[in-house]
Amino acid sequence: MNYTLTQLPDRTEKPRQSGLTMVMDKGLSLREVEDFLSTSAGHSDIVKLGWATSFVTPNLKDKIAIYQSAGIPVYFGGTLFEAFVVRNQFDEYRKLLDKYGLEHAEVSDGSIDMNQDDKCNYIRTLATQVTVLSEVGSKDEAKIIPPYKWIQLMKSELQAGAWKVIGEAREGGTVGLFRASGEVRQGLVEEILTQVPFESILWEAPQKEQQVWFVKLLGANVNLGNIAPHEVIPLETIRLGLRGDTFSHFLDK
Amino acid sequence: MNYTLTQLPDRTEKPRQSGLTMVMDKGLSLREVEDFLSTSAGHSDIVKLGWATSFVTPNLKDKIAIYQSAGIPVYFGGTLFEAFVVRNQFDEYRKLLDKYGLEHAEVSDGSIDMNQDDKCNYIRTLATQVTVLSEVGSKDEAKIIPPYKWIQLMKSELQAGAWKVIGEAREGGTVGLFRASGEVRQGLVEEILTQVPFESILWEAPQKEQQVWFVKLLGANVNLGNIAPHEVIPLETIRLGLRGDTFSHFLDK
Amino acid sequence: MNYTLTQLPDRTEKPRQSGLTMVMDKGLSLREVEDFLSTSAGHSDIVKLGWATSFVTPNLKDKIAIYQSAGIPVYFGGTLFEAFVVRNQFDEYRKLLDKYGLEHAEVSDGSIDMNQDDKCNYIRTLATQVTVLSEVGSKDEAKIIPPYKWIQLMKSELQAGAWKVIGEAREGGTVGLFRASGEVRQGLVEEILTQVPFESILWEAPQKEQQVWFVKLLGANVNLGNIAPHEVIPLETIRLGLRGDTFSHFLDK
Known about the structure:
The structure is a homotrimer. By secondary structure, chain A is an alpha/beta fold. The first copy, chain A, has helices at about 30-40, 60-70, 80-85, 90-100, 115-125, 145-160, 185-195, 210-220, 230-240; strands at about 20-25, 45-50, 75, 105, 130-135, 165, 200-205, 225. In chain A, strands 3-2-1-8-7-6-5-4 form an eight-stranded parallel sheet. Chains A, B, C: InterPro entries: Aldolase_TIM, ComA_synth, ComA_synth_sf. Chains A, B, C: This is Phosphosulfolactate synthase.
């Protein structure tokens, strides 16, 4: 840090289990990745190559290598996993992870129907190969999952071997955890936390208001994801109470 | 492509007449242009230097050269054409195109009143010099053009020598083809397509929801424009059914 | 400029007292700063390192040096001043300004309660060390300041030694001068201008609609701030009547 301020919340340090920032790369160039790392590597824990952008991204191997050499693991968005599964190409997906030297993978069912046993089997299988993040929640606005069901899904996926369960939002932040307005479904989040450990959940929160909401409710070291590369530094200030929105939150009363 | 997936829609290949992606550059630096090309040249067909940003952009000649040497033609936004015309400087505009070695130009009347004969004359004149894109639709929310009139305008402009007619939107995507809410005027688009060839129209669709709407209605190879540089890769995944929004659209039923 | 157009409004030249563009940097990398300067240095007057982003930005000294060597002064966002004050670390703040060779500073009370005498004392003290910008308006949507009070605050802060007073908005542009909808509080702006000199005020206007509104009301050379780096060239075209939104504004009738 560039100077000293008192009354800042304690931040966990990398590698960490809580306080994770997961960044969404949806097509950065190699030089943009370098730029990003030069400012934000210290505040970024893991990078997702959004949905199936990896399919059309040139220099994919080089890009992954740049992130990895900065100590930041990379994984493919869950939509890519689903694209392989829906085409009966799951074995090819497993080979793909090895081909690109990935040590993390996401299991999700945001765009396809998958029964929970099958999903947990995918988690179990992939967990023998990589560290698994599994995502709960649909990308479809019409599919409302009641709170008890969120809890049941999260628990069974952690039990199947998921390292973290992800609370689904879309890039724009309007489904799953969020109402169409972008507002957080507060009761849902609170009920989930009565039964699932805080550090096991990574909340997708692409919009600033959502990040503020989670930091105010759950503190500086909440796990947050789908953060745009240019928003990692702003998010870090929100976590530390150094932006207007959370300015008073961590001060001594 | 970095790996193989079945059941993808056929994409046309460059140079193409349909499936065009027109990108809007509103002031990139030379290095940002290089970055953009390193990821997206293969998915970009033509670049517009937005409205009159070329007036205040340094290194204009170098910038155009970088795009052209990547095989991507560049043209000035229609507002610049209008700025010259409204000042009775049309001859100077023609010289400007040559000075910068441009092979495309846009004719539009989004910000000025111009009768249709005059507009078609501008198209005819410019078509002797460059490839012309002509834009239909006003930037003024109050000016509603009925469908039969859109069709008549598009037909006469194509007949006057326009290579493509552009369905006007603003950078933010809220007039012309779109309601103030950003929603597409579906009846308008469908009626236009009964009379004007699909491949002759380039639809401005700067917002993701609009891109999704056009791909679902008209397929992977619809011509889309005003795409922000960082949205070219995401758009390509929408075209291919590899983003949540169009995930099921191209799959075998 | 790359070509000649008649009927353009006169723009003041750097260094200027009116027509200022203040840019918000919320975490650019060194190379991104270079890119920004290569396109926009000529149209940028001063750069703010947004709120307390300087706390977590690596290479801070180098970044400031790059801006300064391009002739563009840099200052820390007002929230950082407040973060030091609320912790009784004001003397350290003054040393920090010297350590980083800054010649400008912002005094604000957007996130803390400060009585007006104290605020003016901070302005007076800092004005012996640097050029002071002081900000009026709360970041809290619930705190509505009536127009007579805005005027009184602005006058007393200018009298205390502020070079410019800033009309507060948030990065997203939704409080202070703006309603929750982002709409400008027109009556407020007009009443302020009956009593406070035009060139002494710098209006925060991060959104395009706000920039257009101020240029239409106050002309090409209104002072505008919180402009995103990639929006400086677009703003310059708005100032010059070379974007659709202000296209007709400066033309001879």
